[in-house]
Amino acid sequence: MDIEFLGKLVKAVGVSGYEDEVAELIKSEMEKYADSVEVDTMGNVIGLKKGNGKGKIMLAAHMDEIGFVVSHIDKNWFIFVSPVGGINVKTLISTRVIVHGRSKCYGIMGSIPPHAKKEKKELSIEDIFVDIGAKNKEEVLEKGIDIGSIITYDGDLKKLSGKRYTSKTMDDRIGVFILIETLKRVKSPYDVYFVATVQEEVGLRGAKVSGYKISPEIAIAVDVTLAMDVPDVKEHKMITELGKGPAITIMDRSVIGNRKLNSFIEKIAEEEKIPLQKNILMRGGTDAGSIHLIKEGVVSTTLSIPTRFVHSTVECVDMADVENAVTLLVKSLERLDSFVV
Ligand code: CO
Ligand code: ZN
Q: If you measure from the C-alpha of residue 311 to the centroid of ligand 1, how many angstroms do you get, rounded to a whole number?
């Protein structure tokens, strides 16, 4: 697997609605392996690997990331923000960010040091400010920063122990990465559409229009789910564990995984000796939530990568799960012939 490319993927800018930079990176990578690649009106990148006319299957992974837009610049030139997507305010203090004006500049999400007295209250996004080090208005304006400029987390892909990696935006660049690794290897009787979707984090929006355009018989979203195998979490609340295989969605807030498709994938996993977990997540959804409701309905499910610290700058995955997800998808797509919708 191309870890170097994963490094580029997680770094690329792509706050919901501003996916151009990451879309360009994905498009040029897909062009190496797909029969065709196009970008639709909303910005979804759609790569097609042709089969022998058996039918259409859509794999979707979202390329957008959570982030911020500048909502206010105060008289001391501190920057206030509105969140784009589900931001956990607790993760923001002392976080390094990039403010995208005319060019990129670094900033810090401020916090008051413990030495200073402060009132104890629940932290809210309105309390968060970004310090870019500006001393006056000119310094801010010079950089082209204005209301609506986007702000992203700063951070690189870093290897932890063994096969574990941490970075910002594993959600869901790891899904896009899996799609591209699958595209490289897949041979399927079906036309397989590999879609890097936009605006998932603000309500599964890109998948809705790209799914409508493709109108597949079957769809599989590839996304992250919560690995809760960390201290103080009770065993029955772990949802998934790192390194124990990808997870097939039984149910989340957006979709009930198609039972026939799930059993098919479970059977392939069993035959190929690929570890597979079951995912029940009552908060959050995936692109499958949009796709399964398109037109007369699409047979859909989600394959998830267990991830620790989701929606933070240090999202953590195990590459063994990623490898297993790719193998499972490749084998499933090869043998879809035996799956009658
Ligand atoms: Co997310
Ligand atoms: Zn996601």
A: 6
How far is ligand 2, taken at its centre, from the CA of residue 292, in Å?
Answer: 17
Nearest ligand, CA 289: 2
To 10 degrees, what angle do helices 170-185 and 3-11 make?
140
Mean pLDDT to the nearest integer, 114-141: 82
Q: Where are the domains of the chain?
A: 3-65+168-338, 67-153
Residues with CB under 5 A from ligand 2 (ion): 171-172, 223
CATH code assigned to 67-153: 2.40.30.40
Per-residue pLDDT tens for 80-92?
999 999 999 989 9
Note the residue count of the chain: 341
The 10 Å Cβ neighbour count of residue 82 is 15
Question: Rounded to the nearest whole angstrom, what is the distance from the C-alpha of residue 65 to the centroid of ligand 1?
Answer: 7
Does 200 qualify as catalytic in the annotation?
Answer: yes
Q: Which of 65, 200, 201, 315 is catalytic?
A: 200
- CATH 3.40.630.10 corresponds to the domain 3-65+168-338: yes
pLDDT at residue 341, rounded to an integer: 61
Strand order in the sheet with 191-197: 36-39, 45-49, 191-197, 56-62, 218-226, 299-307, 247-252, 277-281
User: Looking at residues 184-192, what average pLDDT do you find?
Assistant: 95
